[in-house]
Design brief:
Length: about 575
Amino acid sequence: MPEQYRYTLPVKAGEQRLLGELTGAACATLVAEIAERHAGPVVLIAPDMQNALRLHDEISQFTDQMVMNLADWETLPYDSFSPHQDIISSRLSTLYQLPTMQRGVLIVPVNTLMQRVCPHSFLHGHALVMKKGQRLSRDALRTQLDSAGYRHVDQVMEHGEYATRGALLDLFPMGSELPYRLDFFDDEIDSLRVFDVDSQRTLEEVEAINLLPAHEFPTDKAAIELFRSQWRDTFEVKRDPEHIYQQVSKGTLPAGIEYWQPLFFSEPLPPLFSYFPANTLLVNTGDLETSAERFQADTLARFENRGVDPMRPLLPPQSLWLRVDELFSELKNWPRVQLKTEHLPTKAANANLGFQKLPDLAVQTQQKAPLDALRKFLETFDGPVVFSVESEGRREALGELLARIKIAPQRIMRLDEASDRGRYLMIGAAEHGFVDKVRNLALICESDLLGERVARRRQDSRRTINPDTLIRNLAELHIGQPVVHLEHGVGRYAGMTTLEAGGITGEYLMLTYANDAKLYVPVSSLHLISRYAGGAEENAPLHKLGGDAWSRARQKAAEKVRDVAA
């Protein structure tokens, strides 16, 4: 073992290492180090999606290796609505790449790891590469797109859609970050260009695109017939046109169809483990067994509670998810590292890594010397100290703060650039720092100085809602209740309705706004809706759709947050 490392990595199937004394962002730095050392992919198992997202951002700060998440569906087991198309797109892209992944980190929440997936042979067999100059009939391509589950629309806005206009065909492939415009000359692809969804203007030209299916299951005629046959073998068939069987039979995919995914395949769905390359190393953080058992119990409870609807009879949980015993049986087939916060007893498979919590360094704004705790720590700590902030703007604010005690940190890109007794600064998402007693290094994050993070601004606006006010179940809503839409402001809940859009029938929440304006929100976008928490319900405002009152309110709140952060 090289001198700079404090532990060895397991190599054989079933071999384990337990690494203890990890605190704050130490887990992220360690996983980054493991990814640099291991000559293969690292699959990090997180206790839940929230931790998976945090770890993704933190690990990315400490390594140049690829770091990606396998998203979960963001629906509860047996929900009666489907995942957002962007989520399916991300999952399909990750699943397609996973068997050939050579290095890097894939982060998977426990419940996502337990979920059975489509066979990789389906993705590989249904992928289509289109190149400039390729001879391809537009009609044949449209037929292929329809069979792959793509929706024909007037204007392409989301993943899984295509539109035709003369010699042009617009397409937003699953797994792609941007849509493409194909220009045909007779039966030949004359050009392939990226275009902007908002302006619909073409951007740069590309030579080829990769087309993945629109769903995690086949939707061609053969698959529909297989679904019908297996449904008849499993459930009773009802003649009601809203029955799942009848909807699929006529080519309509009802909301929540993903929970009948096994019926589209002739073999049982395989576990996600079947996608891992042979040289994969597993790493897990948190209490894996407790998280798995809790998810299994939740799934069984929802199966029992929701399985009484004759219009939506449910497949048993074992068809869709691994049992806890099956999960741990699969884990034994791989070398695994377990990350622990506590000090571990002395054993051959254990190693304590010597990370400790920082002392209390919080800025005391009410004191005459608000930075006294930090100043004393820096005077007594005889190793390198690295400050971490999440953005350039926060770097300037921290620089002004440190200037009060005559500290001017040097900018670095990697943690291993810190040396001697220097003071350094790096930009990244680490939330809480540590003292590394072995390497005599301290990492201090902005939240260690200013308290809990004031405003974690993620690019994905779906995660910017206060979790305390998030509506997790439609049963929580009552008619007339004030609710807040992330983009449109405060309205009133007016009930549920069924609408058809792009050939797909789905459930929508109806919200009313000023001047009797109505907004229809698909249940797949429930994450955009939260309870009104600004006071008594009877005093809640009623915003105007398209007005600027909500924008002004959000801007004012953001300014208050910045004032506090500064």
